[in-house]
Amino acid sequence: MSNFRAACVQLTADREDEVSLVQASVLIREAHAQGAEYVQTPECTTMMEPDKKRLLAKALPEEKHPAVKAFSALAKELGIWLHIGSLIVGTEEKRAANRAYLFDPTGAIKGRYEKIHMFDVDIPDGQTYRESATFRPGEQAGMADLPWGKLGMAICYDLRFPYLFRAQAKAGASVLTAPAAFTKFTGAAHWHTLLRARAIENGCFVIAAAQCGVHAEGRETYGHSLIIAPWGEILADAGEAPGVIVADIDLARVAQARAMVPSIEHDRAFSI
Question: Known catalytic residues?
Answer without folding.
Answer: 43, 115, 156
